[in-house]
Amino acid sequence: MSVSKSRWDDVGYIISSRYRILVLKRLIEGPATPSLIAADSGSSITHVSRALQQLREQSHVTLLVSEDRKKGRVYGITDEGRSVWEMLDTKDLV
């Protein structure tokens, strides 16, 4: 089975940032807030928030609460994000 070029572009995009990797790895386990992801990964909230925004722009994660909510924002992984993560995992890229 051939993997599309865009999927490899997604893989390259994610593995080019350790924070994007950490965020996706955490969200594979289930939905989480930025502060929980930061605590679980030992990263700063600033790096986690930036990675979440980048991954959201690429449709790999989604905001599960209202856009208006400023505190208690919960994020989840999308089917696209899960598919890319599975590829990273099976190819031993993470």
Q: What CATH architecture label applies?
A: Orthogonal Bundle
H/E series: HHHHEEH
CATH superfamily: Winged helix-like DNA-binding domain superfamily/Winged helix DNA-binding domain
Report mean pLDDT, rounded to a whole number.
92
Protein name: Winged helix-turn-helix domain-containing protein
InterPro entries: ArsR-like_HTH, HTH_ArsR_DNA-bd_dom, WH-like_DNA-bd_sf, WH_DNA-bd_sf
Domain HTH arsR-type: 10-90
Overview of the molecule:
It is a single chain. This protein has 94 residues and is mainly alpha-helical. The protein has a single domain, classed as Orthogonal Bundle (Arc Repressor Mutant, subunit A). The chain is built from five helices and two strands, in the order H-H-H-H-E-E-H. The two termini are 21 Å apart.
Question: How would you sum up this structure in a few lines?
Answer:
The chain is mostly helical and 94 residues long. 60% of the residues lie in helices and 6% in strands. The protein has helices at 5-15, 18-29, 34-41, 45-57, 79-90, and strands at residues 61-63, 75-77.
Describe the SSE topology.
Layout: H1 5-15, H2 18-29, H3 34-41, H4 45-57, E1 61-63, E2 75-77, H5 79-90
Helix pairs in contact: 1-5, 2-3, 2-4, 3-4
Which structural traits does this protein have?
5 helices, globular, 60% helix, two-stranded antiparallel ribbon, WH-like_DNA-bd_sf, 6% strand, Winged helix-turn-helix domain-containing protein, mainly alpha, 94 residues, Arc Repressor Mutant, subunit A
